[in-house]
Amino acid sequence: LAAVVILTVAGVYLPHHDTATQQPVNPAQDRFYTTKPAAEHGPGYASPPAPNDLSLRFATDLVRYFEDYPLYTPPPHGGDKEVQYFRYFGEQGRRTALLADVLDTALSLSSNSTASDDDEANQQHQSLLRQAVDNGAALLYPFLHHAPKSSPLRHSTDQPDDTRNTASGLSHLRDSFVPGSAGIVIPVGNRNLRHAAHLITSLRRVLGSTLPIQIACSGDGDLSPDNRAFLERIHAAAHPPSLEFLNVLTVFSDRTLHLRKQGSWAIKPFALLASRFETVILVNADTVFLQKPEALLAHGALQRAGTLLFRDRLLLQQAQHAAWIKSQIPRPSEALRSSRAWTGSKAAPIVPHASEQGDAGVVVLDKSRPRVLMALLHTCWQNSYPVRQQLAQQGLVVVASAHTAVGGGDKESWWLGLELAGAAYEMEEPYGAMVGWPREALLPSDAGTKVCSSSSYQGLAHLDESGKLLWYGGGLAKNMRLAKSGYKVPTAWMAGGQWRLGYELDDPHCMVGADQHALSAQEKEILHVSIKAAKSLDGLL
């Protein structure tokens, strides 16, 4: 950390310290290090010894500040209506970014160690910084509290009757990530079992992917034992690595998540955080891949930033939402400043907006990167029950539950968490493409052909770095919302054009104004074989 540290969110200035002559801090002479009784600290707080260098002083000052000046205090008896969470997105992100600096410093101690280092002192230094991150994260993020007994959030020495009713810390969850590992996580419930079966079969038997797969759910009520057994059977037929199941509620308490009854899309960031994989490819069950998902791991954006995000349609305009976003991001990153969703565009010239920035059908994050991991906490917080519900009530639909009438799912919470926590991220260019079937343009303003999907839920497609189709959402069936919908192989795609919503009576999404491309013979064959397998699975279901 720099010798001069300015805590802009805290309004605290730490003066210049000469680390060569700095004396250890005496807690009795420094009011910031006055030790409180354990009962007065927030959940999960373990008071560290007095720091003896600048990085430890900064970390301790930071955590003390979080404790002394909480962003908000939820009302008693579990009520949440009085807390205006939507006002704290930016401040929550700035505090999270400062914690990420502390974690980065802690991890740099091991990477920069040499044979001449005092290993014991170095390990103690790192342990104190990690504890500070745990303390700070517990103060900022209530979903880390009250972890189940078997949760990797708990240290192995935690007692089952731990009176703190909380977890030991984020560092223990981080230690559960398998170094260098990568895998696919698919959130699956009883309602999207059909799509999940199609996806798993296509990944294994058609595309030949060998990446390990975790199926994430929120207990038996979300994905029944019979349906888990069904997925295991169809997966075993392809003879790949075994299928794993991840019950997110064995890692996090449902007290602030409400995933059992009203989770829907909200489970996704918690599944990514809970997964044992260090690099996670999070995939919606209705995703259709035209290339092996292994290609995502080689993508330049993931290599550079540790993140790979895809864009939504550049379509809807919501002035209220745009104004709120800008109020929370006083210093937008270059990635956001250059975004057409931030500045406006020919496709949406009336108001600058950010409501259609992200498509969360596929999200790839490398959790070994400290700032990415800390930003993921912010995304999870956005999808916790009181926050997502309040945003829906306020009409700020960026992360509203899909169960609400105005629900926008989790899609915007990914880039927003990364942006607010100061993490580097990249999003694809151009905005989402369209895969479907060519139709003649009916409107005079839409000269030429257009490409349309068979429903408004299908056909949002994404390209790889070379401009080839990589994946699209909406499932293999012509209409994912109809149980008996038939199948038809798409024949065309278009990118970089203008979207048309409700173009015809059956309300498809269409794209016009750009070159139309035909799917290659290989792409059509992948879809043909996947659909053939899907029909067989439908018979079993």
UniProtKB/TrEMBL annotation:
Any one GO CC term of the record = membrane
The main place the protein resides is membrane
Q: Which keywords belong to this entry?
A: Glycoprotein, Glycosyltransferase, Membrane, Signal-anchor, Transferase, Transmembrane, Transmembrane helix
Per its UniProt entry, which superkingdom is the organism in?
Eukaryota
Per UniProt, subcellular location reads as: Membrane
Keyword Flavoprotein belongs to the record: no
Q: Region labeled Disordered — which residues?
A: 150-174
Membrane topology note: Single-pass type II membrane protein
Keyword Membrane (UniProt): yes
Q: Which GO terms describe its molecular function?
A: alpha-1,3-mannosyltransferase activity
**Basic and acidic residues bias (residue ranges):** 155-164
- List, in alphabetical order, the GO biological process terms annotated in this UniProt record: protein O-linked glycosylation
The record's similarity note reads: Belongs to the MNN1/MNT family.
- What this protein is called in its record is Mannosyltransferase putative-domain-containing protein
Q: Which organism is it from?
A: Coniella lustricola
